[in-house]
Amino acid sequence: MSKLLSFVLWTGILSISLASTANATLESRLGGKAYYDTELNITWLADANAGKGTVFDYDNDGLMTGYFANEWVNSINIDGITGWRFPNLDRNGDRVFNVDVNSGVFDMQFNDTCFNGNTSGCSDNEMGYLYWVEGITPATSGPFMNIQPYLYISENIHSGSNVWEISFYDGSYGAQLVGNLFHAWAVHDGDVASLPIPEPQTYLMFLAGFGLLGFMLRLRTRFKFEN
């Protein structure tokens, strides 16, 4: 094999390897319905506007009040996987959001740690990390779909009836009344691939067991009254 051919082959292998490494932080789960983030150790729902068209949706566009969004995220069952939540903007719970006020109003604050190029503190903010570090936006959505530009609700309370939110239009975030309208993106702690998924046979066994229990109770009640 000539040196030139060897060089070309090794260059191709290296390129493929680098491409795989670049995409290694988001791994497909549940048949592409979700993606595991190896850096944050959470699983993102693939559809960033999955609430659209549900009974919780305000106007068939995915916008929900914070109250209905909370009901929606608690109702999610993807292939038997439950326990989904909103993204966390303060993972370590220190109540430090590293914001730099740019316009003087809550809905135009930026994650200062990420915005100024220092991404080491971004991992404390799950949606901030996705935007500022992984480069996920409506225009560059990666493996995700239906990313909306504005107002994604988080699980963090700002104060009183206000919750923190983020916009994927420019990475800004701030506080809004929980009764306002938001888009919602569901995440799950850890890697959902490691969670046990109930098999259909298990459900049938439970149903059969409950049916048998009900039948025995009816027989017992009937026997009691007849005697």
UniProtKB/TrEMBL annotation:
TM stretches of this protein: 202-219
Domain of life: Bacteria
Signal peptide positions on this chain: 1-24
InterPro entries in the record: Ice-binding_C (IPR013424)
Pfam families, alphabetized: PEP-CTERM (PF07589)
Ice-binding protein C-terminal domain boundaries: 196-220
Key words, A-Z: Membrane, Signal, Transmembrane, Transmembrane helix
Record's protein name: Putative secreted protein with PEP-CTERM sorting signal
